[in-house]
Write a structure and sequence with these properties.
Elements: E1 2-6, H1 11-23, E2 28-30, H2 41-53, E3 59-64, H3 68-74, E4 82-84, H4 88-98, E5 102-106, H5 112-124, H6 131-140
Amino acid sequence: MIAVGCDQAGFELKKTVIGYLEENNYEYKDLGTYSEDSVDYPVYAKKVVRAILDGEADKGILICGTGIGVSITANRYKGIRCALCSDVFSAKATRAHNDSNVLALGGRVIGPGLATEIVAAWLSTEFSHAERHQRRIDMLDETD
């Protein structure tokens, strides 16, 4: 299951992403927002993160104006590896090398066509399981 969330600046692009998920038979849960009324992006980023950490979702997609705010919020949580992607290569690399479990997109940065390509690449790319990549991921959750 994929948890999807956005703020008002990501609302239109979220509709495109959800359309792609539906057309390709991905199970998803829309965690809001549900309009272009102004909201606070951390609220929706936390909903997606919580769905993953609670085991209700395997992955998440977050969208705000730039993707920066939601990615910063998501990455504050242990076990979350959120990658802000604006190109297909990065979407593939972050899955293969970082085993990212949240994708962040900028609704004011990329258009619907590119967003769909990024989502498709991110969802279809598996983690490589290479020892060096796993070692680095393990280091992310270490505390000093």
